[in-house]
Amino acid sequence: MKAFDIDFYTGSKEELLRQIFPACQQPFSYIVTPNVNHIVQLEHDQKLTEAYAMASHRICDSRVLLPILGLFGVKPVEAIPGSTLTADLMEVAAEQQWTVTVVGCEADNMALLREKYPGITFHHTYPPMGFIKDEAAIGRCLDFVVAHPGQLVVLALGCPTQEIIAARIFETGEARGVGLCVGGSLNFLAGSVKRAPEWVQNLSLEWLHRICAEPQRLLGRYAHDARRFIPILIRHLRT
């Protein structure tokens, strides 16, 4: 069964990791992380909808969204925040001495990540702001990923840009590894942005912690998403 027309992954994080490990050595596939903001954007963004359809996994990123999925009969074992998945995979990458290709993420944070994970070989490109509207800039980004293969391709560009780029990488048929569309997760790992304590995450209040940490950036966005999400939820429950 689907919720919000999304075919959610319903297994555990451990099962997901077991699926990811062999895929890291295969032709490119990618994972998207649905949350309330994504569901709002999917209402009007056809390119994002198409990118979602091509993803190998659509994992519930939000503990707030998790119980709502049950209203549709969709019952994931657990929410798997993209930040948590990224952290787990970076630990594996360091142990296995993998190569990780990063698209996005500021240079200062990349320096911190290289220091934190000396076992990882990082390839990094930082496309210019608004590059998603420039076909030549998109082409340079795709060429970089193909020319610098890694077991993981971390797309830290924000939604919907990262998902659209993941789909474009997939369509080249030339890239390898597993793509992670995980927004600002690398900022948490680098330590430039503090993630909520685990007890706050377990209470499904990470969203509140993030608002308190970055009110100017997030308060308006979260309020907008809440206003848009409620009628979307009601409409899907009625169909």
UniProtKB/TrEMBL annotation:
It comes from the Bacteria. Keywords: Glycosyltransferase, Transferase. CDD domains: Glyco_transf_WecG_TagA. InterPro entries: WecG_TagA_CpsF (IPR004629). It holds the Pfam family Glyco_tran_WecG. Transmembrane segments: none annotated. GO terms for molecular function: hexosyltransferase activity. This is Glycosyltransferase. It comes from Halopseudomonas laoshanensis.
